Amino acid sequence: MTLQWTAVAFFLYAEIAVNLILCIPFISARRWRSVFGWRLWNWLSPYWNKCFFTMIMVLVVLFLDASREVQKYSGPEPMHDAKINPNLYDNVHMKLFRAQRNLYISGFSLFLWLIMRRIVTLLNQVAVTMEDSAGLQTQMDNAVKAAKQHQEDNLMLKRALLDEEKAMSAKNQQLKLEAEKLTNQVKAAEEAVRKSSAEVEAMRRQAKGLAQEYDRLLREHHQLQNLQSPADKKDQ
Question: Residue 111's closest CA among 44, 156, 59?
Answer without folding.
Answer: 59
